């Protein structure tokens, strides 16, 4: 392993963890940063596989709550309903992701200009939603009705396009469907778990023959960096969005997308 690759993997892992659960598109940030750093991984697996580090951060933060839900499944209807709502929300992405995997990885992941444009457009969508005077009807992510969960899952599918943002799509969908800001972010956290574990498993299976020992070591570095940085974000995000909303993330998206387009136009 070259020192440059190690440093790039560490840097990209930090970016993944810091951006995975905020509506700015971690995939676009990692892929764009990798593009300008000249960082390559077989089949673009790095950007997908290190997401599991961020998922472990969610598990550690919500371990007690998830543990209580798990042991309550045999006897508690509320626990069963919550788990089923997450699975129902996950189903659309599972089907579309499996069917469109090769197109997403070989075409969409290889188009930096598309990511920049979707970052900018998504920023304007966030600004628009953040300024709406919505009256929330759902304030507890653990009790979202099944139809609401399924509709949020459909919204998540838009994030198959890198730059849209998985958390951004689910949060915006949740807000427009009647959720408040805090529970929308929290439901996005929970939905991330099966979605990203599924993406990890599928990508690892598809690229199992292309990965070498050096690739595995580089991914491990990014994985650990993503876990540590995601811990910081998950602990702070809910309070932040409850007080400040999503406008700061919108302006960040617009700035990064614009900088990226300028850099691409200059030949970088």
Automatic annotation (TrEMBL):
<feature type="transmembrane region" description="Helical">
    <location>
        <begin position="184"/>
        <end position="205"/>
    </location>
</feature>
<keyword id="KW-1133">Transmembrane helix</keyword>
<keyword id="KW-0573">Peptidoglycan synthesis</keyword>
<dbReference type="GO" id="GO:0009252">
    <property type="term" value="P:peptidoglycan biosynthetic process"/>
</dbReference>
<protein>
    <recommendedName>
        <fullName>Undecaprenyl-diphosphatase</fullName>
        <ecNumber>3.6.1.27</ecNumber>
    </recommendedName>
</protein>
<feature type="transmembrane region" description="Helical">
    <location>
        <begin position="43"/>
        <end position="62"/>
    </location>
</feature>
<keyword id="KW-0472">Membrane</keyword>
<feature type="transmembrane region" description="Helical">
    <location>
        <begin position="217"/>
        <end position="238"/>
    </location>
</feature>
<comment type="function">
    <text>Catalyzes the dephosphorylation of undecaprenyl diphosphate (UPP). Confers resistance to bacitracin.</text>
</comment>
<dbReference type="InterPro" id="IPR003824">
    <property type="entry name" value="UppP"/>
</dbReference>
<dbReference type="GO" id="GO:0005886">
    <property type="term" value="C:plasma membrane"/>
</dbReference>
<dbReference type="GO" id="GO:0050380">
    <property type="term" value="F:undecaprenyl-diphosphatase activity"/>
</dbReference>
<keyword id="KW-0133">Cell shape</keyword>
<feature type="transmembrane region" description="Helical">
    <location>
        <begin position="112"/>
        <end position="129"/>
    </location>
</feature>
<dbReference type="GO" id="GO:0046677">
    <property type="term" value="P:response to antibiotic"/>
</dbReference>
<keyword id="KW-1003">Cell membrane</keyword>
<keyword id="KW-0378">Hydrolase</keyword>
<keyword id="KW-0046">Antibiotic resistance</keyword>
<comment type="similarity">
    <text>Belongs to the UppP family.</text>
</comment>
<keyword id="KW-0961">Cell wall biogenesis/degradation</keyword>
<feature type="transmembrane region" description="Helical">
    <location>
        <begin position="141"/>
        <end position="164"/>
    </location>
</feature>
<feature type="transmembrane region" description="Helical">
    <location>
        <begin position="250"/>
        <end position="267"/>
    </location>
</feature>
<feature type="transmembrane region" description="Helical">
    <location>
        <begin position="82"/>
        <end position="100"/>
    </location>
</feature>
<keyword id="KW-0812">Transmembrane</keyword>
<dbReference type="GO" id="GO:0071555">
    <property type="term" value="P:cell wall organization"/>
</dbReference>
<dbReference type="GO" id="GO:0008360">
    <property type="term" value="P:regulation of cell shape"/>
</dbReference>
<dbReference type="Pfam" id="PF02673">
    <property type="entry name" value="BacA"/>
</dbReference>
């Amino acid at each position: 392993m070259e020192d440059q690759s190690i440093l790039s993997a560490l840097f990209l892992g930090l970016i993944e963890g810091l951006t995975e659960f905020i509506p700015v598109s971690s995939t676009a940030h990692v892929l764009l940063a990798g593009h300008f750093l000249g960082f390559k991984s077989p089949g673009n697996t790095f950007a997908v596989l290190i997401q599991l580090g961020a998922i472990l951060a969610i598990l550690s933060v919500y371990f007690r709550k998830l543990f209580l839900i798990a042991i309550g499944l045999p006897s508690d209807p509320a626990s069963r309903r919550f788990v089923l709502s997450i699975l129902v929300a996950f189903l659309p992405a599972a089907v579309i992701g499996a069917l469109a995997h090769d197109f997403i990885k070989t075409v969409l992941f290889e188009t930096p200009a598309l990511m920049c444009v979707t970052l900018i457009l998504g920023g304007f969508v966030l600004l628009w939603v953040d300024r709406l005077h919505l009256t929330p009807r759902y304030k507890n992510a653990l009790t979202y009705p099944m139809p609401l969960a399924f509709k949020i899952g459909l919204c998540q599918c838009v994030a198959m396009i890198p730059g849209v943002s998985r958390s951004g799509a689910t949060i915006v969908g949740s807000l427009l469907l009647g959720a408040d800001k805090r529970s929308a972010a929290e439901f996005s956290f929970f939905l991330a778990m099966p979605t990203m574990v599924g993406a990890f498993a599928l990508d690892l299976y598809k690229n199992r023959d292309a990965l070498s020992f050096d690739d595995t070591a580089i991914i491990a570095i990014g994985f650990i960096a993503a876990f540590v940085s995601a811990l910081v974000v998950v602990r702070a995000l809910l309070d932040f969005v409850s007080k400040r909303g999503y406008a700061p993330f919108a302006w960040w998206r617009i700035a990064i997308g614009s900088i990226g387009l300028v850099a691409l136009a200059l030949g970088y």
